[in-house]
From TrEMBL, chain A:
Residues 84-112 form the Intradiol ring-cleavage dioxygenases domain. It comes from Chelativorans composti. Keywords: Dioxygenase, Oxidoreductase. This is Protocatechuate 3,4-dioxygenase subunit beta. Gene3D superfamilies: Aromatic compound dioxygenase.
From TrEMBL, chain B:
The keyword Oxidoreductase applies. The lineage of its organism: Bacteria, Pseudomonadati, Pseudomonadota, Alphaproteobacteria, Hyphomicrobiales. This is Protocatechuate 3,4-dioxygenase subunit alpha. Keywords: Dioxygenase, Oxidoreductase. It comes from the Bacteria. Belongs to the intradiol ring-cleavage dioxygenase family. PANTHER family: DIOXYGENASE, PUTATIVE (AFU_ORTHOLOGUE AFUA_2G02910)-RELATED (PTHR33711), PROTOCATECHUATE 3,4-DIOXYGENASE ALPHA CHAIN (PTHR33711:SF9). Gene3D superfamilies: Aromatic compound dioxygenase. One of its GO terms (molecular function) is protocatechuate 3,4-dioxygenase activity. It comes from Chelativorans composti. It holds the Pfam family Dioxygenase_C. CDD domains: 3_4-PCD_alpha. The keyword Oxidoreductase applies.
């Protein structure tokens, strides 16, 4: 027997106490949608460590600019203009390059362009609400958008979501796939939100709050918020210099 | 003080919410003109190798109601059991098959149909072959951390009986929750989030 590291080296075990539990009755929709049995684990195989690849070439020029990607020519979405930027890293602190990041959000009044959203705030004819980009070689990404509004939602009789942007990230392995939401520094609504509060650890919640970055602000154009995303790391990168993606 | 590991914590998950379509399948919703088509809506073309199959999926909540706002992604090997991914060291995957699909539930029936090919067998870490399977990622309102599961094929009884994953499951009476029966070229995979028929979910 060779004393070598096995061929498929998996991702670090997910810390499920850091994530919100599936059953979190303060967020009422979880009650009938949460599995009751414990999930089952086995070592990562090729099925888990592989994942789809999306190239930069599939991107349209306006895909990461939500202020104009749905707007009529010469017009743009209404609302506070912001740039959201950051890096996608893994738990080892290594950049995750060439990975797809997708976002969606309500408009500045807190209204979604969706059949099921009946909130009385009006739609913005120049705002669709989605964008996407692919990280560069150093794991960096950026979007231009408008800051979304808070909105009421059916849970308790008077529950409101803090301003937030939904995001979806891939990473090279399918079990790194992550969907979450980020919030904005200083918003007092964050700590009142039943969805935010499904996360038990306050430090974990803070990891979802984008920080105002005046140094990255584009003067007379857009304020900037920095938001870094961390995907699961694998032990395959610990012992050698091979790049992530193996 | 001992040294630090300097490891980062994974970004915590939050639900995809009821409006996930805006971000991930905007054309399905009628938000047109931003992306030419919804990513992952077509998995095969005429040159893709392998047996054409339909995978018909529904996801049920604890009351037995199908989720009409769920989004499901699947990831699978090609007809030879090779993943189209740089992380598959064997390489040579079918260039006409990406292996990834994404579908929103029908807003009335809750059904999703993936038109794909039957995957080949992929080795387990000890070299044994796994039975053909498709990897699932399930996100929706009320699901705080997207669920992971696998679908196996009802007409692969022999392979399923020896599958290294299925055979290690303690409660063998739950294994059928992962096996989709075949009817013609269609496999029907009903996923139950709760209740007597609760599907096996994985923590991988
Ligand atoms: Fe939202």
């Amino acid at each position: 027997m060779k004393n070598s590291i096995p061929e498929v080296r998996g991702f670090f075990q997910r810390d499920r106490t850091w994530h919100p539990p599936s059953f979190a009755p303060g967020y009422r929709s979880t009650v009938v949608r949460s599995p009751r049995y414990a999930p089952i684990s086995f070592p990562n195989t090729l099925s888990e460590v592989t994942g789809p690849v999306f190239g930069h070439s599939m991107l349209g020029e306006l895909d990461n600019d939500l202020t104009v990607n749905y707007a009529k020519p010469g017009e743009s979405a209404i609302g506070p203009r912001i740039v959201v930027y950051g890096r996608v890293l893994d738990e080892n602190g290594r950049p995750v390059p060439n990975t797809l990041v997708e976002i969606w959000q309500a408009n500045a009044g807190g209204r979604y362009r969706h059949k099921k959203d009946t909130y009385l705030a009006p739609l913005d004819p120049n705002f669709g609400g989605c964008g996407r980009t692919v990280t560069d070689e150093e794991g960096r990404y950026w979007f231009r958008t408008i800051q979304p509004g808070a909105y009421p939602w059916p849970n308790g009789v008077n529950d409101w979501r803090p301003a937030h942007i939904h995001f979806s990230v891939f990473g090279p392995g399918f079990v790194q796939r992550l969907i979450s939401q980020f919030y904005f520094e200083g918003d007092p609504m964050i700590w009142k939100c039943p969805i935010v509060r499904t996360i038990p650890d306050e430090r974990a919640i803070e990891r979802l709050i984008a920080k105002l970055d005046m140094d990255a602000t584009v003067p007379f154009d857009s304020r900037a918020y920095k938001f870094d995303i961390v995907l699961r790391g694998s032990n395959s990168t610990l012992f050698e210099n091979r790049k992530e993606g193996n | 003080m001992v040294q630090e590991l300097f490891r980062l914590k994974e970004t915590p998950s939050q639900t995809a919410g009821p409006y996930v379509h805006i971000g991930l399948t905007p054309n399905f919703l009628g938000i047109e003109g931003i992306y030419p088509s919804d990513l992952g809506s077509e998995m095969i073309n005429e040159n893709t190798k392998g047996e054409r199959i339909d995978v018909k999926v529904r996801v049920f909540d604890g009351t037995g109601t199908p989720l009409r706002d769920v989004l499901v992604e699947i990831w699978q090997a090609d007809a030879n059991g090779i993943y189209n991914s740089p992380n598959d060291p064997r390489g040579n995957a079918d260039p006409n098959f990406m292996g990834w699909g994404r579908k929103p539930a029908d807003m009335e029936t809750g059904e999703m149909v993936f038109r794909t090919i039957k995957p080949g067998r992929v080795p387990f870490n000890d070299g044994r072959l796994q039975a053909p399977h498709i990897n699932f990622f399930i996100a929706a309102r009320g699901i705080n951390l997207a669920l992971q599961t696998r679908m196996y094929f009802g007409d692969e009884e022999e392979a399923n009986k020896q599958d290294p994953v299925l055979t290690r499951i303690e409660h063998q009476n739950r294994v059928p929750t992962l096996i989709a029966p075949r009817e013609g070229n269609t496999y029907k995979f009903d996923i139950y989030l709760q209740g007597e028929k609760e599907t096996i979910f994985f923590d991988l």
